[in-house]
Amino acid sequence: MMVPKTAAEEALGFALPHRRMEEWKWTDLRRMVATPYVKHQVTAKPADIDRLLASSPLAAVKAQRIVVVNGVVDAKRSQMAVVENTGLVATSNDEISMMARTLEARGITLTLDGNADRPIEIIHIVTEEAPRAYAVHHRLEVAPGASATVIETFLGEGEYFQIANHDVVLGDGARLDRVKVQCESVKATHLGHANVTMGAKAVLRDFTLTAGAAINRQNGTYTFGGEGTDARISGAYLLSGKQHADTRLIVDHAVPHCTSRELFKVVMDGHARGIFQGKVIVRPHAQKTDGKQSSHALLLSETAEFDAKPELEIYADDVVCGHGATSGDLNHDHLFYLRSRGISEAEARTLLIQAFVTEAIETVENEAIRDALAAYAEGLRR
Fold it and tell me: CA–CA separation, 248 vs 370, rounded Å?
């Protein structure tokens, strides 16, 4: 029996994932997305673009910027020449990639073959118009032996449906520090998928800050294609109200002698809901794998909710793998200690929350970016 399409599905042109699909059981988009979004590009007012750019948490960071406005590169405001593309073939067939293809995602291809002295920031702006949908699909290639820091920032106003697809390729011996900052409109829906493949002896540092959007789902697939590679994947949620954020990661150890770490810190207030689904796969010949994942949630209200689904699929015998997940309120002994030292309750709570989140933010190695993220996180909690 065919299920009738919803008004949103009719407008978007594709079926939305739903709770009967195992990987989407906590994020039932068919039920959650009700708006019939329009699929068209809009011309933004220059004043709106500049105002949103100035509001970025990373506005003070010295970076080379590529500006994408309502899904289209703004060459005038971009500080780098880029190769624009349309119709990139997704390297995976997950639901988010297929939806992006239907929305005719466009984006850029960025090839880095040296040692960049400044971060590169791809900053996405969505201006307030009638509710609409669009998608971007970027490809980032770091050549063998090269290194780079790339920031992907998402800002927006109003109600919209956005898909952000990223294909990331690290050559042998390459290093990439990748930071994603999602601080969009609280009326937005944000879906993202990062498909990352890594060559031998590559180094990846990947951090995502999730603070915006009403509905947020981010998938990540990380595949080790060469021995001696080290990947650290981390993130932080800062959620309130009725925000909903779901992260689904697959870390695929397809070769021996590689290391992976996943660390996510989740802070939620009000009726917010956070989900972390992390799977580590160790293939039969991937001996000497060292893979660990952990997720920890701080629930600041009785109505906030955290769901964790850690998974290990191990088909090799000489490995070190583990996972852990915790959730709870602020430590009242720590709160009492700070209060007894003359610190107000509000300030004491802020300090404890900041200390909790800092562990994840400190995985960002660029000091200027790290400090800007810490300041932004502190501002949200005050």
Answer: 24
- The rounded distance, in Å, linking the Cα atoms of 239 and 245 is 8
The side-by-side arrangement of strands in the sheet containing 106-112 is 83-86, 106-112, 132-142, 160-170, 189-198, 215-224, 244-253, 273-282, 305-314
* 29 within 8 A of 18, measured Cβ to Cβ: yes
- As a dihedral over the C-alpha atoms of residue 190, residue 89, residue 14, residue 128, rounded to 10 degrees, the angle is 40
Least confidently predicted of 7-11, 80-84, 194-198: 80-84
- H/E stretch holding 352 reads helix 345-361
pLDDT in tens, 98-136: 999 999 898 999 999 988 789 999 999 999 887 999 899
In this prediction, residues 323-328 reach a mean pLDDT of 90
Helix 367-381 with 345-361: angle, nearest 10 deg: 150
Q: Which residue has the tokens 């930071």?
A: 179
Residue whose C-alpha is closest to residue 249's, from 259, 239, 266, 264: 264
For residues 101 and 122, give the distance between their C-alpha atoms in angstroms, rounded to a whole number. Answer: 20
pLDDT at 11: 93
d(CA 185, CA 188): 5
CA distance 254 to 250: 12
**pLDDT tens-digit map of 166-210:** 999 999 999 999 999 999 999 999 999 999 999 999 999 999 999
Across the strands, what pairs with 120?
64, 150
Spatial separation of the C-alpha atoms in residues 151 and 140, rounded to whole Å? 12
Please give the structure tokens belonging to residue 273. Answer: 């809901």
Taking 80 as the threshold, does the pLDDT of residue 1 lie above it?
no
The length of the chain in residues reads: 382
Q: Residue 139: which of 114, 169, 170 has the closest Cα? A: 169
- Rounded Cα distance between 341 and 348, Å, is 10
CB atoms closer than 10 angstroms to residue 69: 23
